[in-house]
Write a structure and sequence with these properties.
The chain has 263 residues and is of the alpha+beta class. It is built from four helices and 18 strands. Bound molecules: heme C.
Length: 263
């Protein structure tokens, strides 16, 4: 089986915003700082919101937890101590926040689409066209799924609350709807033609990303396992078939993309 590493984008291994911080913030903070309740103008629900900061500006200094108001208000070194009115985070929770900020405070990669010769991925709130020179096509709050039309002309991306479509050549946004999705496909006319859930199906094959970084290939008729592709690594967060269906691109949370040959 032929495979190669196409690119390894700048998301460091280690703590992940989506995997490690979001559950912790959900438990302790969303009552007061989320997309729909922003006390002090602070939204810690998404990476983009957290990096924007609150009334007094940014609360995270990437690479430096001990200079970040987010970390200092959690340890009690700075007022107002957080979470306000709740129990302090325990040592291991504080260590997670600290390690994430010290590691660069990056968003994980999620969502991958492939059409024609265009491969696009979501990274934090950005939708990025991959290749020798990467470019940001647009933004969607916390990208979950990305799709490219078969001719490579359009890219669609969905977050929790919205779905947007852009024309690749011009970067023009062609549509936006207030509806999120976990997976989607976009037609050559630029319209989002289907909103599906993972795993991904192509003909009689179903592929499913695993938390250990590998991909399981199943037979659609009886879901029997046919193969396990890839090597151990960060969790799979995006899958996309090439237009001819012969290759499968696999995105991992650390931003790396591998191309697997389908048999
Ligand atoms: C019960 C409500 C409540 C909860 C729960 C809460 N906060 Fe706060 N938070 C506040 C209030 C009120 C302020 C002060 C806002 C202001 O005056 O600008 C604040 C301010 C902050 C600030 C400083 C913002 C700035 O711009 O200086 C940070 C950082 C912060 N909170 C983080 C958190 C985190 C992280 C959690 C969860 C671990 C959390 N908070 C949980 C109510 C809350």
């Amino acid at each position: 089986m032929y495979r190669f590493l196409l690119f390894a984008a700048g998301v460091a291994a280690g703590q992940s915003f989506e995997r490690d911080l979001q559950p912790l913030f959900r438990k302790h903070c969303y009552n007061c700082h989320a997309a729909n309740v922003r006390i002090g103008s602070l939204d810690v629900e998404t990476h983009a919101g957290l990096m924007r900061g609150g009334n007094q500006g940014p609360v995270v200094v990437p690479g430096k937890a001990t200079a970040s108001r987010l970390y200092l208000t959690l340890t009690g070194a700075m007022e107002p101590v957080m979470p306000m009115g709740g129990a302090k985070l325990n040592e291991s929770e504080l260590a997670v926040v600290r390690a994430w900020i010290d590691g660069g405070a990056r968003a994980g990669a999620a969502g991958l689409g492939w059409g024609g010769n265009v491969l696009a991925a979501g990274r934090g709130g950005n939708v990025v066209i991959l290749g020798a020179s990467e470019r940001v096509l647009g933004t969607v709050g916390a990208v979950r799924a990305v799709a490219v039309s078969a001719d490579g002309k359009y890219v669609a991306a969905a977050g929790r609350l919205e779905t947007r479509v852009w024309e690749v050549a011009t970067g023009r946004e062609v549509s936006a709807v207030e509806r999120g999705a976990d997976a989607l496909t976009v037609g050559v006319d630029g319209r989002v033609v289907a909103v599906e859930r993972r795993p991904l199906r192509l003909g009689d094959r179903v592929v499913e990303g695993m938390d250990d970084g590998r991909v399981r290939v199943l037979r659609a008729s009886d879901m029997a396992e046919l193969a396990v592709l890839g090597t151990l690594g960060a969790p799979v967060t995006g899958l996309a078939f090439s237009s001819d269906g012969l290759r499968l691109a696999v995105l991992r949370e650390d931003g790396s993309v591998r191309i697997e040959e389908m048999q």
